[in-house]
Amino acid sequence: MRMPGIPDEEFIREEKIPMTKEEIRVLALSKAKLFEGAKFIDVGSGTGSVTVEASLFVGEKGKVWAIEKEKEAVQLTRKNVEKFGLKNVIIIEGEAPEALDHINETVDAIFIGGTERLEEIIVTADKKLKKGGRIVIDAILLETVTKALSVLNQLNYKTEVVEVIVAKGMKTSKGYAMISRNPIFIVYGEKQ
Ligand SMILES: C[S@@+](CC[C@H](N)C(=O)[O-])C[C@H]1O[C@@H](n2cnc3c(N)ncnc32)[C@H](O)[C@@H]1O
Fold this sequence. Notes:
Its EC number is 2.1.1.196. Belongs to the methyltransferase superfamily. Archaeal-type CbiT family. This is Probable cobalt-precorrin-6B C(15)-methyltransferase (decarboxylating). The protein is an alpha/beta fold. It has helices at about 20-30, 50-60, 70-85, 120-130, 140-155; strands at about 40-45, 65-70, 90-95, 105-110, 130-140, 160-165, 165-170, 175-180, 185-190. It has 5 helices and 9 strands; from the N terminus they run αβαβαββαβαββββ. Bound molecules: S-adenosylmethionine (SAM). S-adenosylmethionine (SAM) binds near residues 43, 67, 70, 96 and 114.
């Protein structure tokens, strides 16, 4: 088991594919309440950074599905999964919610970083989630936050939202300058 918090520099990156930043991954996976042996779905895997962190944390007895609709991002997820030598990851090229139908097991937590068609994704994700499991959504837009909360509340989830504002120190000749990371919202709900 490896705790989340891999430095961003350790991932293979591509400029046009956005990555969930290290500090946000740590918080989001903590809100997902992952544990060793857990089953986890990453919707909109992008670079694969969340998939990689989750895979290392749940370990060999756990399982991670990475869903991504863009071919280039799928390839990047695959490169990072290979770089970290992960054997418990299944990559699904396709668009959620339909791509979720390729998963024939119930899981312990679902992370949604790709928020196109969010409402439909949450409703389908709910059917794949065990009771007591969590759906965690990263959002930049206020509208995404209100939509996520509204759908989760309609499904009777116990919901929370946090706004995360992080600044990371950059070493300069005069000392450390704190450079802001984009603020982000993490919405999460627990299935009752
Ligand atoms: C903000 S990025 C995710 C970043 C990712 N967590 C990472 O760390 O690299 C959003 C990704 O979700 C994908 N996406 C958006 N909506 C999707 C959907 N409905 N189904 C599958 N992928 C989706 C986009 O193609 C994009 O790669």
